[in-house]
Fold each of these.
Amino acid sequence: MAAAGLSEREQAGCRQLLELLGTEELLALTDTITNRLVHPESRQEAITAILVYSQSVEELLKRRKVYRETIFKYLAVQGIAVPPSSEKHQLIAYVKQYWDGKLPSNGSESGERKTHAESTLLGERSVSGV
């Protein structure tokens, strides 16, 4: 069942972004978005419910449980370099541009981007000291 307010590309992107959230955050977000009417039994059910009941990308990404750091990490994993000082509303704008195809990523394939972005995020401090 497709969400009326989200395109297929937005749903796919939101799904990837929601995967970065912890289980407790996902369940709390599901409760908020569905007004506690849906009780998912797994992370995937929670993500599906969130996507089905979300009216728009903005409505979903502006939620308190979707942290600025999570959006930043999603963009990094996708190979999108954004200023670390960006505020949440700016990161949401970058995500929307990316999903609209108006913001090219720095990587060629998602597997390569993820590996590079994760190694950059995780190893940045140790590499800079060498």
Amino acid sequence: MVAGPRERRFSPDASRGPDSRGLFWFGLVIGTFFFLAAISAWQVSRPTQALQILEPAIASTTDIDRLLAAELPALKEQAQTTDQAAYELPGYPLRVEITRDELRTASEGTLRATILARSSTLVYRDGLSAFTHEREQSISRFSLQGVMRTIEGQLGESANTRAKWATIALAIFVGGMALGVMMTGEGLFRFRSLGSGVLAGALPGLVISAVVVFWIGRNESDPYLNDLRDVLVAVFTVFLRNYLVVTVFAAVVAASGPLLAKIERRMFADALAAQEREEANALVAGPPQQR
């Protein structure tokens, strides 16, 4: 049975390379998932965001509160009796200096905030190599402290640069796949293909991020576990937000294709009916007779 103009106008056309259309759609799915992961990593590792996450992470892994309680009184006394310009907190694994004036006038809380702010800036710039005073061999990669160290290492300036270029490359790839889906699609139904491809790529990331945030968001009796939880929640909340926004947007786009086609079908129903009658009359009349 030959499709009429109404069906040809509002239905996908299988003659336009279904293999290439499927390839573009699958590429869009994969590209969307990794693009959202890359842009989330880029956002998390930007200075304004990363420094806020690094400070509590460093506080948890360096045992700064115990060191301040044990070493700060002696440092303050030394600052009052000597003319040394700068001091380091003994036992602290990062090379962070405190000035003599800061030791003389600042409270313990202010000094703690100052040390952590300078530490996060140092780790962001130099990565894990900033921990020059630390006995790294005593830290297992699979321990809680090792996990926190890994997170700290992925929030540095170099990680931000890698995530930025990955985001740019994946954005170009996703744009090409989306263009291919639109070009091989038919009519307004191409929006359904575009939206469903993006939705299929974003939805797994949304589920994974939501599960991680829910699982690590549980309260623990161990303060160190709570510190690790807070850092991980801060990181994965960015991933969850991005996947959620794109999932909702893609669902709207996917639903808009059939909806727009239905609206257009109703708006132009009379014109299409007239066109169908003309084509039917032409078929009945046959080709014009030549004299």
